[in-house]
Design a protein that fits this description.
about 280 residues; six-stranded mixed sheet; globular; binds phosphoribosyl ATP; binds zinc ion
């Protein structure tokens, strides 16, 4: 049976448990447990700190894991990134005090930069031929310049609010990160087959998010025009109505483009438009 390592508490815990749940796999969200059995898929769930997940997967303590790409790149463990999961989005950026006259990446030459991600930062500076002093600190990296411990910082940024609150300005994004599914590269055939099934479920779940099922009544002679606006997954489903001049058209679209498409459809003569939430799209 596969063992998956997930974060025991923190920013990724809830989204990981809800991705599993939407994929029909119920895992306890309990922070006190170390390991539990999931329901709905043959899976052991191991609850760890995110920093320990890449190593646990590389060692085979867990077969797979959910963790931020930033942790995977920092730990440089022997694991495969098999899938992006679409949550936990953030970036790792260099930031300087707002009064600094920043002249581009060469500004960092000879400077002291505080970070919890020394490996990624050293690799970045090495790639750019910059010699800077990388100071590893475990937490509250953003206060380092104000207390005189560093000239700049390299840290996770999401909204950017933390930087602004600390009088810092984001200058260069080094990596974009999100939660990913990682796997031990040496899984046996049985575990590979189980992983493929799990990835199929996760992919369907992620692709279904934000999708809507739209039904509308349409004059029969407008079908081609409406279909050009809404190509759907293959092509739209058209059903006859009792009134032979009209049809019912059904299509699946993403909520991001819903209103724009609906406005255009109304112009073609579509009426009685129903928008329904969609549980799952299985391709
Ligand atoms: O206890 P454990 O070691 O498991 O957790 P942790 O404290 O190390 O990590 P946690 O739970 O804070 O974050 C887990 C993962 O979430 C990270 O490794 C990232 O992949 C991802 N993530 C996404 C973030 C953020 N967004 C984020 N904003 N991790 C941290 N932050 C921090 C950021 O450093 C900043 O200080 O949140 C603060 C607010 O960010 P702004 O820019 O929105 O103000
Ligand atoms: Zn951590």
């Amino acid at each position: 049976m596969l063992t998956i390592a997930i974060q025991n508490k923190g920013r990724l815990n809830e989204d990981t448990v809800s991705l599993m749940s939407d994929a029909g796999i119920s895992a306890s969200a309990s922070h006190r447990k170390l390991i539990s059995d999931a329901k709905g898929f043959p899976l052991h769930v191991l609850y760890l700190r995110d920093d320990d997940i890449p190593q646990a997967v590389a060692m085979g303590v867990a077969d797979i894991g959910v963790v931020g790409l930033n942790e995977v790149l920092e730990k440089e463990e022997d694991v495969d990134v098999v899938m992006k999961l679409g949550f936990g989005g953030c970036r790792l950026s260099l930031a300087v005090p707002k009064e600094v006259q920043y002249t581009g990446i060469r500004w960092f030459e000879g400077k002291r930069v505080a970070t919890s991600y020394p490996v990624i930062l050293r690799n970045f500076f090495a790639d750019h031929g910059i010699h800077a002093f990388v100071h590893e600190i475990a937490g509250s990296v953003e206060v380092a310049p104000a207390v005189g411990m560093a000239d700049a910082i390299f840290d996770i940024v999401s909204s950017g609010g933390t930087l602004v609150q600390n009088g810092l300005r984001e200058e260069d994004t080094v990596i974009n990160s999100e939660a990913v599914l990682i796997a031990n590269p040496h899984l046996d055939e049985e575990k590979r087959a189980a992983l493929a099934k799990l990835m199929f479920r996760f992919t369907s779940t992620i692709e279904s998010r934000g999708m809507k099922y739209v039904l509308m009544n349409l004059p029969k002679d407008k079908v081609a025009e409406a279909a050009a606006i809404l190509p759907g997954m293959k092509s739209p489903t058209i059903m006859p109505l009792a009134d032979s001049q009209w049809v019912s058209m059904h299509v699946v679209i993403h909520e991001n483009e819903l209103w724009e498409k609906i406005e255009k459809l109304k112009e073609t003569g579509a009426t009685d438009i129903l928008v329904l939430a969609l549980e799952n799209v299985i391709k």
